[in-house]
Amino acid sequence: MSYTIRPAGPEDITALIALHKAAAAVPDGLARRPDEITQAYVERCIAGISFVAVGPDGTIWGEIHAARETVALFSHVLSSLTVAVHPDRQGRGIGSRLFEALIAHARSMQPPILRIELAAGAGNPGAIRLYERLGFQHEGRQVARGRYPDGRLEDDILMGLLL
């Protein structure tokens, strides 16, 4: 099934809220819970760098966003990265293509972006494998970083990609 990748815009806000809520509702979908996906959150997402995967009918199947660090010392870094693919569309390479678009865009930015960083839940090996395939390296582990509503704790795996 074909889809296109394009920059996200304000016209996508309603669809992106629905996408992120759907992704957040499944285990290991997103760090945020569905009730934490708000219009203000999505507006902040697309204020940085954001790309969407759009199906032939105009439905948004996935989204990725990141932001340049604002402290001068770290301004060569993209962080606050999140990728969301609708649960019904996972396993079709959408996440990979969204990352490829983000990485290509980062390489063209001025002043240059030299590093992209992210954190992945240790209990999400599929996401970690995807990031490794894209060239991200393991850089550390934050022990008990995430706490689920049932009280379980999960480590975050810190990963980085040098461009």
From TrEMBL:
The record ties this protein, via SUPFAM superfamilies, to: Acyl-CoA N-acyltransferases (Nat)
Keyword list, A-Z: Transferase
- Determine the domain of life of the protein's source: Bacteria
Q: Which residues form the N-acetyltransferase domain?
A: 3-163
Q: Which GO terms describe its molecular function?
A: acyltransferase activity, transferring groups other than amino-acyl groups
A Pfam family this protein belongs to?
Answer: Acetyltransf_1
UniProt entry tagged with the keyword Hydrolase:
no
| PANTHER family hit by this protein | L-AMINO ACID N-ACETYLTRANSFERASE, N-ALPHA-ACETYLTRANSFERASE RIMI
Query: What is this protein identified as?
Result: Acetyltransferase
